[in-house]
Amino acid sequence: MIDEKRDARLAMLVEWAAHTRARGYDVPEAETLARIADAGLHEGGDGTAVVAAWQPTIDWLLKQIKFGMRQPHTQLPNELAIPLDGLIASPRRSTFAPPAPPAPPAPAAPAAAPAAAAPEPTELSALQAWRRDGLESDPARFAQLKEGHLKQVTNSTARTEEELLKYSAVVRPFAAEIAAVFAEFAGSTGSAGSPASPPVAPVPSAAPATTAPYGTAARPDEDSQAIDPTGFAAYAYEPSTGVPTPLSLSRTTEGAALISWSAADQPCVFRVISADDQAPFNPDQARPVIATTGTTAVDEAPFLTAVRHFQVWRNPGASVSAAKIAQPLLHAFGALVSPVLDLDLREDEGRIIGQWRVLDGTQRVQVFRVPIHSAATGSGDPRYRILADQLNLGGFVDAGAARGERYLYQVYAEAAVDGIARLSTPSVVDMSVSIVHEPVRDLSFDLHDDVENPFFNLSWTRPPGGRVVVYRSAKPPLAGIEQGVQPESVLEQANLRLDDRLAHPLSDEDDRGFMRDVPWPREWTRAYFTPVVLQEGFAYVGNTVRGVRVPPVARPHLTERVNRAVLTFDWPDGADAVRVYSSPRGMDASVAIGGQPTETSFSTYKMRGGISFPAGTLDDAGCDLHLVSIAFDGGQPVTARPITINYPALLRVSYAVTPKYSMLGKLSFGITVSAALEANLPLVLVYNPHRLPLAASDGTALSVTTAEDDGTAPSRMFYSGAIGPDAPPSQGWRTDPEGWQRDVSKLEGFVRLFVNLPAENIRHIALLDPPVGKLRVLSGLKRAKGALGG
Q1: Fold annotation for 341-432
Q2: Stated pTM of the model
Q3: Per mean pLDDT, which of 357-371, 521-535, 554-568 is the most reliable?
């Protein structure tokens, strides 16, 4: 059964090994790579120093291929493009140098072999040591200076500060220090200042006839031979046979072009040529890269234009001499787009600024901002492309990067190749956007005072970085804690205890953060809310908002007295005062509380036993009373939810009873009735010889007729008629003298007027008696004594 994942791992490892071997490094053998691909881990190796030297690199490659990344070896970080220091030697030889002659037999080793000599120091190793020291002492300054920059400087001819100041924008700030490292290294090795390089053996003009037969190189530069590129027969423009195949083109970590092509089916010499801007039309009119019997080459020459065309021409022949006189055939071709040059990315107050140079012919530069968590799969993903409407030929300004996030910036140069837009390999920079540490300064508190389940909402403007937490405490935090950044550990000492931190979920809407439906502690009348931004062990304390909740009044009750109404209730905890607003029945409380209230304090309420409303203060036709408890916070009133009770209509009726005697001495009583509201009531006048009547049935109901003596028959129950403030004046009623004589046994006692209705129907009627002396019946003798003062 075919294991596709294993085959993908093996193909990737073999390709990485070929590229790395072309750069002159020792790599694990094919059998070892096969075992590693089988195991999926570097432990599949053979335990040799070569495998150990590339262990971090192989681990990284296997992880990337597991995540689905294609050709991860083309995007190796600089530190993984070279083996671990000291485990294997530096590059063996230049790609263009022929194999070194066989070394003479080594003398027999002594019984006790001495320790292996340390590798010779190089300018690059000196710069690497200087950079490591810089990262330890000042990591922020040295963070942008990568290993690749050191390699570029080492491979250049710049050695003095003046020369280095003309170099990359990243290198320029370090020019003086790098020049000092070069000078110190030159003094310690005795070199004149140019980069040290191993001597290259001269290339023979033609290979001797005894050279190995031509074939295809299984590995780059390993089983092949470099040929002197001169002495080939001039191109005769003869018809070519065969179909050229595409070249495989990529770039090494040092920026050189790595070229590979298919093998030939007959002995030949391959001639690799290149031309900038336009493709060459024959091998004699282009820049030679190499003549070789292998199938790979490395072109380290800097690009002159945006596009470099490569061609591989095949000179068939059984020997070098035969191949040089044969006509070349175009074997393979391709083109490579130059990436941007002198790439420099840096941050300026949250914006990522990119600068670079491009060569002539570059049409635009595509920039991708890939979140680091998508780096394995987001390479070239259109979702992450930014500034797509700009050419970006000189750089870019990215204002959309989020504070505190880490991104992989990928920069592709775009140029036309045969009329088709092609992209370069990406220039990749790992950038972390700094965080601006700002506290929350606009926390707002919104209380929803539900009687059963009071709750509140909090909101604030989201800070540019960090995590927001909110504390709810019974006491405010210590003064001064909001000044500047504080270690997170001091919050407990500043009255911001971990138990007071709200655990409710946070939500975001636009640029606002929210915490909703948080219960209010029932026993609290005041609470302090403090937002804190946490970041990497530090705390940024924001503004503290004091929340005040006044419970509404409970169990309100209105008691009607003769000349006043008394309002009582349970005084709410924490309230400084209670206000009562009167309004017509059915009016909304929010409208009613705009009127003039009656207000009482707790001490006055306790002293008086309630809030008293004298007769006539409340509307006799009925009204609503809205009770609002209040607490004063900073001089401003904080109100509770209004509680409303109804004051029912009350009909107040007054009457007067006046005794009258006829010339014959017969007694009768005149009756007049008045009311504050319009009414028509059934009335009865009751006589009791012993006491003031207590009810309509407590005595004798007297016969009554109209005072106008209009012939109306006397009746023991009479109607008041249309009485009220708008009723016309009435003559009233009187008792019938004949009936009085018949019903009253003696001329002493009391009379009293009653509304003749069932008890349940007179709950809202108040019949006000005149003074008791006005209701007393006296005999003639007692009246005379009273008149004479006796």
Answers
A1: Immunoglobulin-like (2.60.40)
A2: 0.42
A3: 357-371
